[in-house]
Structure formats: structure tokens, C-alpha cells
User: What shape does this take?
Amino acid sequence: MKRTPLLLAGLLLAGPAGAQSNRHDSNAPVDVAADRAEVQDKAARAVLTGNVVVRQAEMTVNADRMTLAYTGRIVDGSQQISRIDAAGSVVVTRPDQVARSQFAIYDLNRRVVTMVGNVRLVQNGNTSNGGRLTLNLDTNRAVLDGSSVAGGGGVSSTSGAGRVTGRFSVPKRDESSAPAQAPAPTPQ
Assistant: This one.
């Protein structure tokens, strides 16, 4: 049975008016910090381990380990990063949004973050869980589905059976604007 992904753009990412126009600046510099870094020039990558923190504009990614793949091109004295792979207790933080998973891939060229393995997305008091989350940083669109990664690591979704689960807040109702109850009919 084919399952279609749950589109959360309208539910989770629809914030105050104008929030959709606040695009992530994927051209901003990437700042990194870690307990240990190993640069592997021949493989065109750097492996960061231990309390890894990567920041770009208003987005922060935390994980136990990250691999930064670079293109080999140097612009203004800096390597050009094309992809970041994160593993272990991954947390992606953006304004009004926090997503957690076991693994994540940030494709800087496509401006897409894909998170897999026990994904939890929290925004504005709403929480959704699934196996895979795709965040498009250009459009602010989030797609969460029940898919999970199978294979060596045995990663699976906490939502069970490939389903997406969630809890969404409901606006408080103003009691003064509630319709008045009609009086009970009197027996005759």
C-alpha cells in the first residue's frame, strides 16, 4: 500500500503574515565548531566530531558527528562546501522551528535539509513525528512522511508502521463570543 507524505507547509510553517517570505540565506558563510576536526584533502572533506555545531545565517545544526564535503574550489581563500552530513542526536534550529532526528543531510546547492530516523518537528507549539522530513529552505516548505531508513543501522520511525503523528494547538475560544445556549424547552 502506497503512503503519501503529509504536507506540513500549511500547518507547521504557516506563521504570522509575511513569515513565508523570510527565506534562509544559503549563501551566508558557514561557521563550524567541534571537539575534533580531521581534514581529508584527497577526499575533499572534513570530518568533525564531538559536540559539533554548524551555523549559517539564522540556522544552527548540532550533532555528534558531521562530514563537510567541499567542491575543491577556493573562493576568496575559503573552501566551497557543497554538502553537510550529520549523524547522532541531530538538532536543526531555525527561527520558531526545531527539528530532531538521528541523521541529516544539508545539500547547500539545492538548499534542502533532509532528516531521517525518529524525526520530531516542533513549531509554534505544534509537534509532528515521522520517519523522514524534507525542509526546502527556499520555499519554507516541510514534507514529513512515515518513511524510515532500512538497512545496517536499523533506523525506524517512532510513529510506528510508517505513519506520521502529530499534535496541533487550537486557538483559545473567547467565551464572551460563544453563542448563548438556548433555554431548555419547558414540559407542557
About this structure: The CA atoms of residues 111 and 137 lie 6 Å apart.
